[in-house]
Amino acid sequence: MQGKVGVAGIIPSERTVLVLRRSSADRFLPGAYDLPGGGLEPGESPDDGIRREVLEETGLHTSIVRPLGSRTHLLDPDSGKQDKVLIVYLLSVTKGGFRITLSEEHDEFRWVSDSDLEGIFGSGDLMRSVIHEYFVSDSSG
After folding, report:
1. I want to staple 11 with a disulfide (CB 3.0 to 4.6 A). Which of 15, 18, 41, 101 is the partner?
2. What is the domain range of residue 106?
């Protein structure tokens, strides 16, 4: 089984977080919502990778507030060929404000609250649980 390391960023604004919708032309989960992020380049650190991915996908310049944890999940349960370690970061926008410029990988962005998650993610979706855990931990202080 081949393993990969991926990174995802939670970018909060007030009581919402940024999610992106994958383009219908995207080969991986077209039309699905996701957090900004992606795979690491060879030799790239996760810290550098999350800042690069967010900049490429959204045009936002960010800094890392803190890591929020990691998850391991199977990307293709039918073939069982690839598992992935996902490192999740809490990010803040550092310059240029929240002016979002989407890459070709995505065709829409939304700011979602915890109550919005059920409407855009399936019940077992990894991103739904990651975002929900952020909201729960953020509200408990």
Report:
1. 18
2. 2-139
| Residue 28 pLDDT exceeds 80 | no
With CA atoms as reference, report the closest residue to 9 among 37, 34, 33, 32.
Answer: 37
Q: What is the pLDDT of residue 27?
A: 77
**Into how many domains does the chain fold?**
1
Residue 23: is it exposed, middle or buried by C-beta count within 10 angstroms (0-12/13-18/19+)?
A: middle
Cα dihedral 74, 87, 49, 5, rounded to 10, equals: -30
Closest C-alpha to 90, from 129, 25, 135 = 135
- CATH code for the domain of 81: 3.90.79.10
